[in-house]
């Protein structure tokens, strides 16, 4: 894997070089000391991965990420001195297509685990597009009545796309909402708070034992998979352990296909890889309405593209039309209810 480093501090660049040197299969393609340099480097020599700092003089990492993903798209991992202190910038960068974020390892990172955490993140990104989508085994949908459910899946580019969708839902939205976003568990509470700034509906992280209630948004919040049990309560499950996508959209979609007793609208938004495509197809096969974001408005056209290739989406829509379509679908569901 050829990796580009973007950081304005020489000591930070050296720390990253030392971490990458621990692996024979990693090579530093180039190092850029500013956002402007990073954009130019990517245009001339697009690497397999960019390690992007956020806080830099001139063009910061958020803007550099936006420009790289627009002109020379490639996987980007945010590596900054404190992810927690820069949470808003992290979510903005992820909204433009960054895949994940981690704290900067120190020159002594071997002692505090920082180096191992960074290498694990890089390995995970390397696996993201390795496995093709596999059909999920279908079961008969659960019978009986329940309120409708909006099930949203997203990855790279997802935070801002999810925020845009939630912003378009009314305060009296009749359905329950679940969001499965590929994000490290340490960032999930901050993302729930951040989404709450845009949503008229309350947003919080999902806890084991929760139920999906109308007018409330629950966000998957651990590195395990959020799943719906037969008793209609949520839980986190480790299996399938081999999945690189954690939490997995496919796992959640399959669980609601098996156990949810009401109508489901599945929405698959921007993201790298293929997670969610097979699950969306399963929902469609069971008669639920499914929507995938279109290529033009996706920060990373991976997951929605995989869904389109599987004919998993009833509709493929630009982001700015999805909320209105969801409102219409839920209004139809309410009208059809006895």
From TrEMBL:
For this protein, the record's Pfam families field holds: CheB_methylest, Response_reg
Q: Which residues carry this modification: 4-aspartylphosphate?
A: 53
Q: Say if the entry is tagged with keyword Iron-sulfur.
A: no
The record's InterPro entries line, in alphabetical order, gives:
CheB-like, CheB_C, CheY-like_superfamily, Sig_transdc_resp-reg_Me-estase, Sig_transdc_resp-reg_receiver
Keyword entries, A-Z = Chemotaxis, Cytoplasm, Hydrolase, Phosphoprotein
> Which chemical reaction does it catalyze?
[protein]-L-glutamate 5-O-methyl ester + H2O = L-glutamyl-[protein] + methanol + H(+); L-glutaminyl-[protein] + H2O = L-glutamyl-[protein] + NH4(+)
Q: How is it modified after translation?
A: Phosphorylated by CheA. Phosphorylation of the N-terminal regulatory domain activates the methylesterase activity.
The EC code for this enzyme is 3.1.1.61, 3.5.1.44
| Stretches assigned to the CheB-type methylesterase domain | 141-326
Which residues of this protein are catalytic?
Answer: 155, 182, 275
Which EC class does it fall in? hydrolase
Q: Where is the Response regulatory domain?
A: 2-119
UniProt subcellular location: Cytoplasm
Main localization of the protein? cytoplasm
- What note about domains is in the entry? Contains a C-terminal catalytic domain, and an N-terminal region which modulates catalytic activity.
Family the entry assigns: Belongs to the CheB family.
Q: What does this protein do?
A: Involved in chemotaxis. Part of a chemotaxis signal transduction system that modulates chemotaxis in response to various stimuli. Catalyzes the demethylation of specific methylglutamate residues introduced into the chemoreceptors (methyl-accepting chemotaxis proteins or MCP) by CheR. Also mediates the irreversible deamidation of specific glutamine residues to glutamic acid.
Q: Which PANTHER family match?
A: PROTEIN-GLUTAMATE METHYLESTERASE/PROTEIN-GLUTAMINE GLUTAMINASE, PROTEIN-GLUTAMATE METHYLESTERASE_PROTEIN-GLUTAMINE GLUTAMINASE
Name under which the protein is recorded: Protein-glutamate methylesterase/protein-glutamine glutaminase
């Amino acid at each position: 894997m050829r990796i580009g480093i973007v950081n304005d501090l020489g000591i930070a660049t050296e720390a990253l070089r030392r971490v990458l040197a621990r692996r024979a299969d990693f090579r530093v393609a180039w190092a850029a000391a500013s956002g402007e340099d990073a954009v130019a480097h990517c245009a001339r020599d697009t690497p397999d991965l960019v390690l992007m700092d956020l806080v830099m003089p001139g063009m910061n990492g958020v803007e550099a990420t936006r420009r790289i993903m627009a002109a020379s798209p490639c996987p980007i991992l945010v590596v900054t001195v404190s992810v927690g202190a820069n949470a808003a910038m992290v979510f903005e960068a992820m909204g433009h297509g960054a895949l994940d974020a981690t704290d900067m390892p120190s020159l002594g990172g071997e002692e505090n685990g920082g180096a191992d955490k960074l290498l694990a993140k890089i390995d995970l990104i390397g696996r993201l597009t390795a496995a093709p989508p596999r059909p999920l085994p279908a079961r008969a949908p659960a019978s009986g009545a329940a309120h409708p459910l909006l099930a949203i899946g997203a990855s790279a580019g997802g935070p801002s796309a999810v925020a845009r969708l939630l912003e378009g839902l009314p305060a009296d939205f009749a359905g329950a909402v679940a969001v499965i976003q590929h994000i490290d568990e340490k960032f999930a509470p901050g993302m729930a708070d951040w989404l709450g700034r845009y949503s008229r509906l309350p947003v919080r992280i999902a806890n084991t034992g929760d139920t999906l209630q109308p007018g409330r948004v629950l966000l998957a919040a651990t590195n395990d998979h959020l799943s719906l049990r037969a008793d209609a309560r949520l839980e986190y499950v480790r299996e399938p352990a081999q999945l690189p996508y954690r939490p997995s959209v496919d796992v959640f979609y399959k669980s609601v296909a098996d156990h949810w007793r009401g109508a489901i609208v599945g929405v698959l938004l921007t993201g790298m890889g293929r997670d969610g495509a097979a699950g969306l197809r399963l929902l469609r096969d069971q008669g639920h309405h499914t929507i995938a974001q279109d290529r033009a408005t996706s920060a990373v056209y991976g997951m929605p593209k995989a869904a389109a290739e599987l004919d998993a989406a009833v509709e493929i829509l630009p982001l700015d039309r999805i909320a209105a379509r969801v409102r219409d679908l839920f209004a139809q569901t309410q009208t059809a209810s006895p």
